[in-house]
Amino acid sequence: MTRIALGATEIRKSYGSVLANQGISLSVGPGEIHAVVGENGAGKSTLMRVLQGIERPDSGHVTVMDRDVSFAGPADALAEGIGMVHQEFMLAPDLSLLENLVLGDEPLRWGRGAFALIDWQSAEAQGRGLAERIGIEVDWHRRAGAAPVHIQQFVEIIRLLRRGSRILILDEPTAVLAPQQVNELFDLVRRIREDGTAILFISHKIGEVMALADRVTVIRQGKIAFSAAVAETSGEEIASHIVDGSNPVGGEIRRGTPGPVVLDVAGLSAEAVEKSHPLHDISFAVHSGEIVGLAGVAGNGQVELMEALSGLRQAKGRVELAGIDLGGLDAERRRAAGMGYISPDRRHEGLAIDASIEENAIAGSHRASPISNGLWVDRGAMKRVALERLNRLSVKYGALRDPVASLSGGNQQRVVFARETAGSPQLLLVSQPTRGVDLNGIAAIHSILRDFRDADGAVLLVSEELDELQMLSDRIMVMAQGRIVGALDADADRREIGRLMVMEGVGA
Amino acid sequence: MIEQILASGVVLTTPILLAAIGGLVNRQAGIVNIALEGKMLVGAFVAIVISAATGSWLVATLAAALVSMVIGYGFSLTITRLGANMITAGLGLNVLAAGAIGFLMSYAYGSSGTLRLPDVALLPHVFPQSVESVPVVGQLLAHLDPLTILAVLAIAVLPFLLGATRFGLWIRATGNAAPVMLAVGLKPKLLQEASTAFAGFFAGLAGAQLALASIGIFNEGLTAGRGFIALAAFYFGRDRPWQTAAACLLFGLLDAAQIRMQTVGLPPRLIGALPYLMVLVALVVSQMRSLRRTQ
């Protein structure tokens, strides 16, 4: 009888002077789900890299199926049955799901070597068998990139099981999923557990840990801060260990005092981004000194609405900012009219991720005085402006010339806020501001938003985190299938918000 | 008239098609092969020299293909192992091939621009001259050479090779998502190298066909941008074999038509630009198509 499916004993690993893992021990048994939680930079990723054979620990050892092992590389870990489900899925988008399933281990009909013929029938039979075993349905002939995200994730899990993985490491698997998809994933993970598979579940979300895991370990600053059976602890206790006793998410609930209308939208409609919903006849107003939260299941038109308002997407209808008609104005002119935009895609749209912190902090202001005289960029002025902006929001960084990618998620987002609030805009369009940000970073971003509101700014906030919306907003609008289906007080019953979020048949 | 355009159109299609076959496999593996032109030129040069030396079109054709294959493989190493930019490296190879051939011609043969060698064995015709009496396609059949048949066969088996064999799956996966190949324990760089060698082999065949199909004389301008037209063809055909072949045939027929039209009195330079203009149109159209798909 195997007692330890995958174990780490006294793992130490340092990068230069950074002690990423300082003697971490944990283990997961067959048929057990063990959650590993901690802030970004706590040392979770390093530990996972050691368990996958990507990094060799400075000291300590790894145990697989009650045997001590040492990995020369990731292939060794794979051969020992350790499978990793990545945050960014490892499927080739233009191949079919079936082709992705068998890639690298194809069932053969004829011949050997590279030119052997693949037996697609038996491949599909295997796929069906595995999908049935874990209780899901997959259209195997679909192009991977066109399949829903949770199906892509399931196929990746099935691929690992097919190749004999008895230990699965799930790295924040719910980050990209809608609530219903999360439930499906959890059902699937529980069925895999019943088969005796050991599961390490890495997460940020305490609610998910409580719902799914058998055991939980908190890592803080490279050490084990806490470990317990989930049945014997509480969400509050776990949260307090993650942030070392301080109140996890920023402070008391404050409401603003709304003033005159800043953003006035009437009859806005726009076409949809792939797999999402087009906008139908949207009308609402945002006043100065208030945060209006926009709730909804991902892909119900939130992205389209924010892009239409910021000038990134063509739309019909009337949009006025403090009485100025924005119709036909592009993003640059809209910004000039007093609008800031926090993109949900920080790495691609919010920041030029490989450019320096300094350049990101001043981007957009580089065309005009004081940074540019129309011909040359004044480097001194550029540095002065960047420093002033970064200091105002106390962004922590090494050097101005470092790439912005070197910052943590929270500090990256602070750079975005520093830039977007620099021209004292009247309106901030904010989308998923705390995605991929750790708890302390979340608190800081929330207080930036509140301060902006309290200085008579208007904020339209889109978030998939209901907690966040209810804590920050003065009122909440719910979006479903490209329409605004309801408006509520911020402290409305959560079940009521949920009911509106899943409204079907309001016309598509 | 139609018969002649058809016959010469197919002869003119073959080198573009052969090069495009290699290029499309290469691109499916994630490498845009700008250097088809240079490798075709090398193939044509080698084919003439070897054909004159051995008197065998078969030996000459194989030699052309193998030399281009080796060059293609070496070219891929600069990209996969040394991290060269594939466009820059490809342009460099084109310039290098043209320069090296010019040097060899003047150094070894004392000629500049054009190389005439005695006893060059041309590609044979597959069918006896009597098929010329068949209506419409008679001319075409009479001029059919083995490399044209090889090109058509290759187009016919490519969908199967790419779709049903491990190698085909790996090639497609490499071009689509190389990190996924690594994650499942395969080596994407090896596949990129193999596919570039394959492209070199076919570009060599294309050069041999160009040199040995009718004239048997090497000229520095022999390829005349056909490597780039092949590039446009597989872009336009979105790396799919039959669509790419159709694009090649369109370019070949246009080329044949413009030669004919020159005799009718239209300005020859203007008409000569037609195939290249078509390439431009083809690329704009295919780009617009893919833009519309992503929006």
Structure notes:
- Chain A: InterPro entries: AAA+_ATPase (IPR003593), ABC_carbohydrate_import_ATPase (IPR050107), ABC_transporter-like_ATP-bd (IPR003439), ABC_transporter-like_CS (IPR017871), P-loop_NTPase (IPR027417).
- Chain A: Pfam families: ABC_tran (PF00005).
- Chain A: Residues 6-246, 263-506 form the ABC transporter domain.
- Chain A: It comes from Hoeflea alexandrii.
- Chain A: One of its GO terms (molecular function) is ATP binding.
- The complex is a heterodimer of chains A (508) and B (295).
- Helices cover 32% and strands 25% of the residues of chain A.
- Chain A is an alpha/beta fold.
- In chain A, the strands form five sheets. Chain A has a six-stranded mixed beta sheet with strand order 6-9-10-3-11-12, with helices on both faces.
- In chain A, strand 9 (167-171), helix 6 (179-194) and strand 10 form a beta-alpha-beta unit.
- Mean pLDDT of chain A is 87; it is low at 245-250.
- Chain B has one domain.
- Chain B has helices at 2-28, 36-54, 57-80, 86-108, 138-142, 146-164, 166-176, 178-183, 188-212, 226-236, 241-264, 268-272, 274-294; strands at residues 114-115, 218-219.
- In chain B, strands 1-2 form a two-stranded antiparallel ribbon.
- The radius of gyration of chain B is 19 Å and the shape is globular.
- Chain B starts with a helix and ends with a helix.
- Chain A binds chain B through residues 75, 78, 86, 90-95, 99-100, 102-106, 108, 113-118, 120, 159, and chain B through 161, 164-167, 169-170, 172-173, 176-177, 179-181, 183-186.
